[in-house]
Write a structure and sequence with these properties.
Elements lengths: L3 H17 L3 H6 L7 H21 L3 H8 L1 H7 L2 H15 L2 H28 L24 H16 L7 H17 L5 H20 L4 H10 L11
Pfam families: PAP2
Keywords: Membrane, Transmembrane, Transmembrane helix
GO molecular function, one term: sphingosine-1-phosphate phosphatase activity
Length: 237
């Protein structure tokens, strides 16, 4: 015989279900968001094309070499590494002539993390294959679309070629690095082609946003100065 309390809960649930429709149970139990037929078709095609694309490229040694260096390329554009190493570089360099470049790049890196995390959380596309990286299984980063590495590498490339141009001798290495990062994410089965392509385009859009909101040298110096030891408790007067 069922517990009276359980019977009351069941009765309430049946009334609630009749009121709000027969799809209530499905909407409660399912964590997947409904996708349009066109989107389902597009994602399915992307998966098929990505598989064939990877098989085709891995027939050639240059692309095998890119896949072999996937881990190094991944670390070279890792969001956590950039967000910890770049502020450390600002503090260690302590050069006022670099503050404007450093602060604007830092702003762009933060913007990249926020935008890609929001899109990943909204789209929630699963990665092509599971990852052994624990950090990549937590929060929005466990999702595939868009590629944060692709967006970040594209932003950094454009930043140092167009926004804060380095010597032209560095442009080719930056372009090759960005290309290899984006492609390695597909070859390593961390992303589909559409993920990396859209990530790259998002990186270009972020670079444009930074140019529109570019922080002046005076404001950049003020921001760094406010965080320096001279303005912290125990700092020099």
């Amino acid at each position: 015989q069922e517990d009276p309390k359980f019977e009351e809960i069941r009765s309430f649930y049946n009334i609630f279900k009749k009121t709000f429709g027969n799809n209530l149970e499905l909407s409660i139990l399912s964590t997947k968001r409904p996708k349009s037929k066109f989107l389902q078709f597009l994602l399915a095609k992307d998966e098929i094309i990505t598989t064939k694309f990877v098989i085709f490229l891995l027939k050639y040694e240059p692309f095998k070499a890119i896949k072999a260096h996937t881990k190094a390329l991944e670390l070279s554009c890792d969001g956590i590494i950039w967000l910890t190493a770049w502020p450390a570089f600002i503090w260690l360099a302590s050069n006022k002539s670099l503050y404007q470049m450093q602060i604007n790049l830092l702003f762009g890196l933060i913007l990249d993390i926020v935008i890609t995390a929001l899109i990943k959380a909204a789209v929630r596309r699963r990665r092509p294959s599971p990852t052994k990286n624990l950090l990549s299984t937590i929060g929005p980063d466990k999702f595939s679309f868009p590629s944060g590495h692709a967006s970040r590498s594209a932003f950094i490339m454009v930043f140092f070629i167009m926004i804060y141009p380095l010597y032209p001798i560095f442009w080719a290495p930056l372009i090759v690095w960005c290309f290899c990062v984006c492609l390695s994410r597909v070859l390593a089965k961390r992303h589909f082609i559409l993920d990396s392509l859209c990530g790259f385009l998002i990186g270009l859009a972020q670079a444009y946003i930074i140019t529109m909101l570019y922080i002046s040298e005076q404001n950049a110096i003020a921001m760094v100065s406010n965080l320096s030891s001279d303005h912290l408790p125990g700092g020099s007067e």
